[in-house]
Amino acid sequence: MLYANSPFRTRLAAVAGVLIIGGGLSACGADNGGEDGSAQRVEIIEAAALTDQLAALDLDKPGPSLGDMVVYSGGIQQDGRQIGHGGGSCQNIYIEGDEITMQCVLTAQMERGSLTMQAVWLEGTSPLDLAITGGTGAYRSATGTARFWDINTPDERMRAEVILPREE
User: Fold this and answer.
1) If you average pLDDT over residues 127-135, what whole number do you get?
2) Are 22 and 158 within 8 A, CB to CB?
């Protein structure tokens, strides 16, 4: 069941907008040594996104409940131009009183490949840190962290450090 203008939908829309942002890449490389002694480089990610599709699914009793989810997609923007698209889902995994914990997973498709991220998030807290879990193409060995602030506001921003093997 989809319900518009509810507190649940508003909370999930905030997460959706934040997670889509994770795909805009601004290569700003630095070499670092890996834990195993291998050379690594870091790409700094900074971008914004506009959610263009969103569905909130009320899967149990009306209102926030275990299993409810949101599915979202949107364009990834950097310096006002579209550089990719992404989407994913967030699902309620734990509810205690008014506190809702969600598991969020997304994929951002960029010119050089896809980038995947995930997090467990206590709804409404800031900042939100997402683990970079891999990807495809140029990002197939990606790790790192993406941090988001000002979730679901006009000032929403993100900074990520994508750690990749150094190109030879």
Assistant:
1) 92
2) yes
